[in-house]
Amino acid sequence: MKIKKAVIPAAGLGTRMLPATKTIPKEMLPLLDKPVIQYIIEEAVDAGIEDILIITNRAKSAMDDYFDYHPELEERLARDGKTKELEAVRRTADMANIFYVRQKETKGLGHAIWRAKDFVGDDAFAILLGDDIMRAEVPVMKQLIDAAEKYHACCVGTQAVADDAVGRYSSLKVSPLEERIYKVTDMNEKPTPAEKFSNYAILGRYVLTSSIFPILENTPPGKGGEIQLTDGLRQLCRTEPFVAKVFEGRRYDTGNLCGFLEATLDFALDFPETGDFLREYIQSKRV
Ligand code: UTP
Predict the structure, then answer these.
(1) What global pTM score does this model have?
(2) CA dist 145 to 2, 60, 142, 152, 221, Å?
(3) Each residue of 111-139: pLDDT tens digit?
């Protein structure tokens, strides 16, 4: 099981970040000097991924432009001797082989993933949600790939979330295999407190086999009237080896205002050009 392909679903409507996301894809909102999606692609590349498919829609073409060359800008930067900026601009286009397919209707995450069927073929593949950013010493995607390869299994990234938060995620039914790795036997999407299996929630990262595609093709709309990936995974974990990795690292949901703000502040505190400035600024506000 060698994982070289990744899918980044980024075709959601981003309604929690309106009105900004009316015309700017939420994946393109800048977290310091880079758009959110660049952090996600960097994580995938650092985990050994070579080919990346981004699921987009008709309002998201800013993403294709961002990962393309920009000859006029590059010529100007070269002429002005701005080598650092030129390298940064070039790098975005050379990081990985990036492909795009559109989800023509916003029918849910499961439907978006199903659009990756031809790209994936018969391979096992990774999924990184387009608005979930991870900060970790070992890339979270790499932690999942290692677990999937060790157990020849599908794998989801998980952490235990607070009781009052489980209902916003998918809850996993698990039994321990080793430290930080659990066997998964069931799951449900956005459970009520009575329905939840555990506080282990799926958080934005997956390794799946192509067996998910025939399942998704026949998965009816679930919670919220959308085709839910979790409903498909629920079937998959009954027929294939399936594990959950309790990953080491911090996850930020940049698709909502508070999550975006947390990510911005944490990244800015460690960013050489802004760290000292931000610390001093916060101190001055306390006075
Ligand atoms: P979210 O629910 O976090 O994204 O979906 P959203 O739908 O854009 O958010 P709000 O609630 O309207 O603010 C999880 C992931 O699934 C993708 C999103 O882009 C995000 O990466 N998604 C969701 C799709 O690609 N297509 C869909 O139809 C729905």
Answers:
(1) 0.95
(2) 9, 29, 5, 10, 29
(3) 999 999 999 999 999 999 999 999 999 99
